Amino acid sequence: MSKTIIISLIISLTLTLFLETGFYLIVYIKKYNLKDLLLVVLVNIITNPVVVLTYWLMTRYTGFNPVIVIIPLEISAVLTEGYYYKRYGQFFKKPFLFSLAANGFSYATGLFIQFI
What's the rounded Cα separation, in Å, for the pair 87 and 108? Predict the structure, then answer.
């Protein structure tokens, strides 16, 4: 594995953890729960590297259009995270909606960072 992908994995995971835990704290400021916050961290540690590595491999070695690759990857991340929030979370009222919003927020922020 090249040094570039390792750096990309570290940066992506760090930014995702920062953004999605921050998103959780903003959304659930009145019902902040350490267990749910830890769950947000753990599910992102599981899903983010898989999404980033799969995206990198698929776009690098298959020539697939990046948009065609990222859409199913992000959908699978949202569904996986939503499942874990529903199954193990304590105060997630709409776990799949939270997952979609948190992932949308972090993805859009990542695009903005790349743009500037």
Answer: 27
pTM: 0.92
CA angle 101, 105, 106 (to 5 degrees): 120
pLDDT in tens, 2-21: 888 899 999 999 999 999 99
**In this structure, which amino acid lies at residue 37?**
L
Which structure tokens are listed for 56?
Answer: 């990198």
CB-hemisphere CA count at 13 Å for 92?
25
In whole angstroms, what is the distance from residue 79 CA to residue 63 CA? 26
* Per-residue pLDDT reduced to its tens digit, 13-53: 999 999 999 999 999 988 889 999 999 999 999 999 999 99
